[in-house]
Predict the structure.
Amino acid sequence: MSLPIVAPGRGGNSRTLLYPGQGVPYVVVPPVSLAPPLQGTSPVFAGQIYAPQKIKLIDVPEPKLDAPDQIIFQPELGCLCGSDLLYYENDYPEYPSELGHSLHELIGTVLDTNGSKFKVGQRVLCVPVNQRGLYERFAVTETRAIPLVEEPTPPEALMAQPLGTVIYALRKLPNLIDMNVVVVGQGPIGHLFNMAVNNLGAREVIALDKVDGRLATSPKTGATRTINVTQQDAVAMVREITGGKMADLVIEAVGHREQALNLCIDLAKRDGTILYFGVPQARLDDVAWRGAMVKNLKIQTSINPDFAIDFPLAMRWINERRVDVSPIITHRYGVEQIQDAFDLFFGRREGSLKVLIDFPAGRRKA
């Protein structure tokens, strides 16, 4: 069923769109009626987080090429990421919300360029600086984009961005063949870690979370066992699964609100490794450092993957079907429904994992 949606905040010239209602699976893409194409008109829209957990679209000027080696990028499809919530929640001094917050995984088209890397009309995966990608179109350095490998590109190609960050993190670690791995947190990143470590030869991939709906997806993404930490003793269960050895590698993929490092320390074996991937708060209190020291644990962090290596490799994994990322793509919204999309994602409702955001330019190509 389609619902009439009126794009907000467009200076009295709102466009009436037809788009599916909340929670429609991403594989269902019904027809959309649009006003005439917007390319070349002014103004364009941008996202604005104007209060904690409140977001709207407002008018902004057309972007211009104002520095060397830039492109004008027009998004067609994006998706929400856990790191977008740092701005959406709008109560972290170290993450102040700015215009264009927050999207940072986008597929779209190069409309103009003063560089040499891309041609006008070429489709690319773009990762804007500081996650300021919620624009109808914007200027960005060409180094923040990679070409799409094949046409037409499925929505799964968007997952090359988060999968690339996972690959970058795992490149810092030793061989995982025959290792017992625990992945703490089964949001989208946790599921991508399941896929990757399973693909790299882990013996056990033990998935932990508080939400049964997320754990239900874990076997589809490579987990060999699942544990709901609110219903089971995770330490005892991992000890039983590993025959008393505990985990060679524990991956913290929980995120910014909840400090799960102490649980990771408890789950790791002596001389084991913790990969701390979830974005932490500026300071973590009450960390059991003595426990980590007594076990001689190695703690590895990871941020800022290599554009030249990690995203293209992730795109290749996806296109060659070395991993199947489709189970984590759960919902699809029009950009006019950005508030609804964030509310669903923030509340972890309806089994939401990756929530796709459709832009007008993408619908015109459909």
About this structure: The first strand starts at residue 2 and ends at 6. The first helix runs from residue 85 to 88.
